[in-house]
Write a structure and sequence with these properties.
With 1017 residues, the chain is an alpha+beta fold. Helix content is 12%, strand content 28%. It has an 8-stranded mixed beta sheet with strand order 23-28-29-26-25-24-27-30. A 7-stranded mixed beta sheet has the order 1-46-47-31-34-36-35. Strand 20 (319-329) and strand 21 form a beta hairpin. Helix 8 packs across helix 9 (600-613). It is globular, with a radius of gyration of 32 Å. The two termini are 39 Å apart.
């Protein structure tokens, strides 16, 4: 909900904000020679290659213990041999039997032409594509991606159950395990039993006889493994089943007093899960439920019956007697009925159980008293998370009308206020499941339409309204609402127990103002696709077609052109739909890393934006002459609408050691067309270090701010210094700092910026919306901060919730992952961060503004004129007459510009005696210097170097008084003529008419109104 800001109120407001996502805690493994924990037992990673015995890759997990171990909620993770970034992950689901193995298959090399025999039926499938010869595999007790430093992994590392570094991997246990031969050499890495000394080189050896074995003991030949016979022991009579009520069976704590004992009990069947993986049903004592008083109701009247043998034999409403063993399975009390003999249908009529009409209990004790019972949820519920909906068919809800919040979004880390928010989140969080354990991303299940999302959008912030009873149970470490039968995307909407409201917005709210600024994270927009490079591995769709790059190369985005087009159309529609005049971009390809001009990717995006509008609407700010010697593969960029604003000079990139592990900020000043020097404002784009990794002072401190907080603080301080310098350089104190700061609103980096006098506009003016959702918690990593002078001009702010609140299944990166193709070419889930839009009123600007819209094409038949009010040219206003110290500076080039040829550059309006530097961009080349004479004129002849490529370039003339003046020209390889006009002044007055006449005569001209920096003193 955007809010317009009264200028007087906003000027007096100072917002301090910061935050970071807490990491998930988990147990870690250490050396285990005794064999008391799960291990990677075998890794066959050359499947499908020439001569391979099997056509799929596999990892076999071994369980040396005497009890089955669930790996649901765990993951298999992979990272390339030389990488130090986050691992690629694939969630696991299932159970490793006692003393047995668990087979995880992965796609083999060669796709449909993969060589080799089929594996035995795998227990799970992983969407990883590990190298056959070198890399790092991790069995992790969490699904979030690990980010381990290179080198030996210390015992007890959080999240790591077992790790295998092989080939030339930079990450390993003790010492890396070498691999014999390349992919054509058929072999696997096998552990000697299940002994784990935490030394990969010692624990694993190369074998030419892979032995894939699944949890059922099936081997490649279809048989089962056998164990040596032992002397028989006399059979023991099972203990007689004790007759108990369900309430007695459940008890009044979280553990049944009958756990480990056989009982017989009876109840009415209320839910049946014969398919989908639960393999059971719930029964409830007749006549119970209804108006339940949780202050006196201390024992549940229902229980889950785990019974693959009888689940298909019961129907809802039957009165049955069951006999079996009581146990606690990962926190859920259940009764296991192992055969049909343990089920008996009872005759006679009994009162049906009623759904307990209760609000969601805030304590575990009260929830335990309702475990497995029918409930009719009372009160309102709000969607809090949908990240795993496309994989497991589950939706995280919050009781009440508010989302779950990142504690450090609204409270300082480590404070009682932050602890109170954490407690409130836990008290209100419940997961809506689909009555199944189906993993819709495994190959075996991708043909099943995904639950909930197929029937319509499920958006964070939407209201969830229950129309039918559900069962409250506990699975995967979470309290869940289960439908009374499994649901999938094929279930009619009318048969679902819950409906979701539509809270999507087609456009951002009106933020007012003469101009609008926005920040947009474009989610690894890489026009350089993976198939253009060598070594890339991919995430693939259900047909095996590559969709996005996984690892193995520097590209991070689309796998192929068709994938890029799906990504690009969403981004283009979203940016054009913002109605912004200046946009900062994060996570866009740094094309210099691929041997291209640094601006190639942003130029591609601008071209797509203009193609969508049907006009030459957008331009980008060229890279400056000086760029960092070392840069990330992603960068920042600034784009703007040419008929609304123009840069006042060349951009500047901050070069500071604080940003060696982040993207260096870029700054430039803009003046609105029709405005004066007093209307100029400075924009600084930012993308701070992420929260995922850090050591030493940068290790996660456990206060909710994540890893690398110390570096983000240093980056915030460097940004403050940079902003001060840029205000002097560009001659304005109106500063907007936009971007992805990777810090929530009350975290330390944001406090640094607040203490320096900058106001975080999101929490100040749009406190009910946030830009990011992580682990079901909403908060803003993305911010727009205004200096005091800029704050006075702000009219409104809107966080346009089109990305973070939508399921990841809608991304281009999940195209054709399921029988229901959730991808559409609209704005929703164009990225994972939401854009922020800010309106500003500038004193010298009047007339129409750019309202939110789709940035669509110019209506046909109007001669290309953009109607007022839709992002076109502002209403003409008289150009102020030049004042002393504010006169016009004019540049012109005379003669043909071609590679190796000379041309003449002239200029007027410069300071007397001012010495200027002349450069040719976009690949910065210094041509020489010119000194203005007493009348402010300069003139000189220069040669286009032979190293310059033909095409569009920018002449950049920079002086200490005038600042920077630029002129866009075209260089031809043989007979090119200077062309192009980059106007950064006001309306087309006489000076510009003269410029156009000069262009018509074969010369280029640029005129800018200069403001001397001394005026700000």
């Amino acid at each position: 909900m955007p809010q317009h800001i009264r200028r007087t109120l906003l000027c007096a407001t100072v917002a301090a904000t910061l935050l970071a996502a807490p990491l998930v805690s988990a147990t870690a493994a250490s050396a285990d020679p005794a064999g008391t924990g799960l291990v990677i037992r075998e890794a066959y990673l050359k499947g499908g290659s020439a001569g391979a015995p099997f056509n799929h890759k596999f990892v076999e997990i071994g369980n040396p213990t005497a009890a089955p171990v669930s790996v649901t909620g765990w993951s298999l993770q992979y990272r390339s041999a030389t990488s130090t970034g986050a691992f690629s992950t694939s969630a696991l689901e299932g159970t490793v039997p006692a003393g047995g193995t668990f087979l995880v298959s992965m796609a083999g090399n060669g796709g449909a032409a993969a060589v080799g025999a089929d594996l035995p039926t795998p227990d799970d499938e992983a969407g990883l594509n590990p190298s056959g010869t070198t890399g790092t595999l991790v069995l992790a007790d969490r699904t979030t991606a690990l980010a381990l430093p290179a080198g030996a992994v210390a015992p007890g590392t959080p999240g790591v159950v077992d790790l295998l570094g092989y080939g030339a991997s930079n990450t390993f246990e003790g010492a890396v395990r070498s691999v014999d031969g390349g992919n054509p050499v058929p072999n696997a890495l096998v552990r000697a039993g299940t002994t784990d000394t935490d030394v990969n080189a010692a624990d694993f050896s190369n074998t030419t006889t892979p032995t894939p074995t699944n949890a059922a003991g099936q081997t490649a030949g279809g048989g089962t493994t056998t164990t040596p016979p032992t002397d028989p022991t006399p059979p023991t009579e099972p203990a007689p089943a004790e007759a108990v009520t369900i309430a007695q069976l459940q008890g009044t704590t979280d553990t049944s007093p009958y756990a480990g004992r056989n009982v017989v009990t009876s109840g009415v069947v209320t839910a049946v899960y014969a398919t989908g993986g639960f393999s059971g049903y719930t029964i409830q004592t007749p006549g119970t439920g209804g108006a339940v008083d949780l202050t006196t109701h201390t024992a549940s009247d229902a229980v889950f019956v785990y019974s693959a043998a009888t689940a298909s034999s019961v129907t809802a409403g039957q009165h049955v007697e069951v006999t079996g063993a009581v146990s606690e399975f990962n926190g859920l009390t259940e009764l296991t009925v192992s055969s049909a003999a343990g089920l008996r249908t009872l005759s006679g009529t009994v009162p049906a159980p009623q759904a307990a009409a209760v609000a969601f209990p805030r304590t575990d004790a009260q929830r335990e008293s309702l475990e497995s019972m029918l409930v009719a949820p009372q009160g309102r519920y709000t969607v809090a998370d949908n990240y795993t909906t496309n994989q497991y068919g589950e939706v995280v809800l919050a009781s009440g009308t508010e989302r779950l919040l990142q504690p450090t979004e609204v409270a300082r880390p480590g404070t009682p206020e932050a602890a109170a928010i954490t407690a409130d989140n836990a008290a209100r969080r419940v997961t809506l499941d689909d009555g199944a354990s189906t993993n819709f991303l495994t190959k075996a299940n991708q043909g099943i339409p995904v639950s909930w999302l197929t029937q319509g959008p499920v958006t964070v912030g939407a209201a969830a309204t229950f129309d039918a009873p559900v069962v409250l149970d506990y699975r995967n470490n979470a309290w869940k609402f289960q439908p009374t039968a499994p649901v999938t995307g094929a279930t009619p909407s009318a048969d679902l127990p819950v409906a979701f409201s539509d809270v999507r917005t087609a456009k951002p709210e009106d933020v007012g103002g003469d101009l609008k600024l926005a920040g947009f994270n474009v989610l690894n927009y890489f026009p350089t696709t993976g198939d253009e490079l060598t070594g890339c591995t991919y995430y693939t769709d259900r047909d095996g077609d590559p969709v996005t790059v996984n690892s193995g190369c520097d590209a991070r985005g689309a796998a192929e052109q068709e994938d890029l087009e799906r990504q690009q159309v969403k981004i283009v529609k979203a940016i054009n739909g913002l109605g912004a005049d200046v946009v900062s971009l994060e996570e866009i390809e740094n094309s210099a890393r691929f041997g291209q001009p640094r601006d190639a990717a942003v130029a591609t995006l601008v071209g797509a934006l203009n193609a969508a509008t049907g006009a030459d609407t957008w331009a980008y700010v060229p890279s400056p002459a000086v760029v960092p010697a070392s840069e990330d593969v992603i960068r920042l960029a600034l784009i703007y609408k040419k008929d609304r604003v123009a840069p006042t000079g060349a951009s500047t990139i901050l070069q500071d050691a604080a940003f060696t592990n982040a993207r260096q900020p870029v700054a430039d000043a803009f003046r609105p067309l029709g405005g004066t020097a007093d209307d100029e404002f400075l924009v600084i784009a930012n993308h701070f270090k992420s929260k995922g990794s850090g050591t030493g002072a940068n290790a996660d401190q456990g206060d909710g701010q994540g890893a690398s907080n110390a570096d983000r603080v240093a980056q915030a301080k460097a940004l403050v210094t940079f902003s001060t310098a840029m205000q002097t350089q560009y001659g304005t104190d109106k500063v907007f700092m936009l971007g992805d700061f990777n810090a929530y609103s009350k975290e330390d980096p944001m406090v640094v910026l607040d203490d320096a006098g900058y106001t975080d506009l999101g929490p100040t003016a749009d406190a009910d919306e946030w830009s990011y959702v992580f682990s079901g918690l909403s908060g803003s990593l993305d911010h727009v901060l205004a200096s005091p002078a800029a704050l006075a001009d702000v009219t409104g702010v809107d966080i346009w919730n089109i990305n973070s609140v939508e399921s990841v299944g809608l991304e281009y990166s999940r195209y054709n992952y399921n029988a229901t193709n959730l991808y559409t070419d609209d704005v929703y889930r164009a990225s994972d961060h939401d854009p922020i839009l800010v309106g500003i009123d500038l004193p010298g600007i009047g007339g129409t503004t750019t309202p939110p819209g789709d940035g669509g094409t110019t209506p046909p038949g109007d001669g290309g004129t953009t109607p007022p009010g839709d992002g076109g040219s502002p209403t003409p206003t008289p150009t102020p007459a030049p004042q002393p110290g504010d006169e016009a500076a004019v540049l012109a080039v005379d003669g043909h510009l071609r590679v190796g040829a000379s041309f003449r550059l002239t200029g007027t309006g410069f300071a007397a005696g001012e010495r200027t530097t002349v450069e040719l961009h976009s690949e910065p080349v210094t041509l020489g210097t010119l000194t203005a004479d007493a009348s402010g004129r300069l003139s000189g002849t220069f040669t286009v170097p032979s190293s310059v490529t033909a095409g569009t370039h920018t002449l950049v003339v920079t002086g200490p008084t005038t600042g920077t003046v630029t002129l866009v020209v075209t260089v031809d390889p043989a007979t090119g003529t200077a062309s192009g006009l980059a106007f950064t002044g006001a309306e087309l007055t006489g000076g510009i008419v003269a410029a156009l006449l000069l262009l018509a005569a074969g010369a280029g001209l640029l005129m800018v109104r200069r403001r001397r920096l001394a005026r700000a003193a």
